[in-house]
Amino acid sequence: MSLKFEIHPSANPTPEKERAAKLENPGFGRVFSDHMAIVRYRQGEGWHGARVESRAHFPLDPAGAVLHYAQEIFEGLKAYKRDDGGVNLFRPDANAKRFRSSAERMAMAPLPEDVFIEAVEQVVRIDRAWIPGGEGSLYLRPFMIANEVFLGVKPSAEYIFSVIASPVGSYFKGGPAPVSIWVSENYTRAAIGGTGAVKCGGNYAASLRAQAEAIEHGCDQVVFLDAVERRYVEELGGMNIFFVFEDGSLSTPPLGTILPGITRDSIITLLRDSGTVVREEPYTIEQWRKDAASGRLKEAFACGTAAVISPIGKVHSASGDFAISGGAAGPVAMGLRKMLVDIQYGRAADPHNWIRKVL
Length: 359
Ligand SMILES: *Cc1c(COP(=O)(O)O)cnc(C)c1O
Fold this sequence. Notes:
It is built from eight helices and 18 strands. It is an alpha+beta fold. It folds into two domains: about 160 residues, 2-Layer Sandwich (D-amino Acid Aminotransferase, Chain A, domain 1); about 170 residues, D-amino Acid Aminotransferase, Chain A, domain 2 (Alpha-Beta Barrel), CATH 3.20.10. The strands form two sheets. Strands 1, 2, 3, 4, 5, 6, 7, 8 and 18 form a nine-stranded mixed beta sheet that branches. A hairpin with a 3-residue loop joins strand 15 and strand 16. The protein binds pyridoxal-5'-phosphate.
């Protein structure tokens, strides 16, 4: 299926000087570009009304389904400016595919993958002036909400799909600082049969209390354990996790109740390309503590589109704290980070065809 997008450029785009000031130090997620893409769905009519237009409020009826039953999914990917002035997307087809499987799990209308990619590309093209140079990027946020006006509990018959864009700086000024994480023993993130593998707002709503607990304990992030035995490490609130061992091998928790991260998948692929052993296998918090103490564990790091790779320096829990690689950023995490970022910005070869040149 393919939809033709009507393009309506903004009549009042942000003046160049104001935009330059905003791009100076954009931080994360508070500055937005001038345009958005929008596509609507209605049962019986299908996807229609594809437009790129000025970024504006959505008129929402107070009885709109998303406001009551949280039928909502999203994605996150970035557009990177190359040295030659062109623009790269990284694996947008993987985001489109995951968005479709998220929609299926949430009983929402699946958006054709080519429409997803087209919407993202249209926003990047029209707002290319909003892509910061250097280590910055334009963070793209495709999302879908249920929009039927009905308080009955059922899958909505109407949806709005949209893409908005937010320029972001380098996540870490002066190189990635190791993060400290709090082991959530009171709250879990996902159970078998639930929505752990879905990128939906509801998972985040349910994680906020645990994240707040992490902050209260002086930590940057929360790490969740499995919901059955409460001992297997799953992932952080919004990032997957890897462990690096003394013998040079790595491990990461298996798919199932965790979010299938595209960064996670890319790291596994890059490691296997270089002949490194990566196991997708369960790992307990007790083992983690023991391995950190014995020196068998060399590094641990979290990964995701927003921060790429964050080394984990310290782990805090109600039953005691421990440090990993002396609390510093390790060479494996830093090497992988550079490999990934170099591919994303077009500075390194791209043997798996992950890059899509938009401009
Ligand atoms: C988005 C997300 C990730 C990381 O996925 P990427 O595709 O690598 O950005 C990890 N965990 C959760 C819960 C997420 O929502």
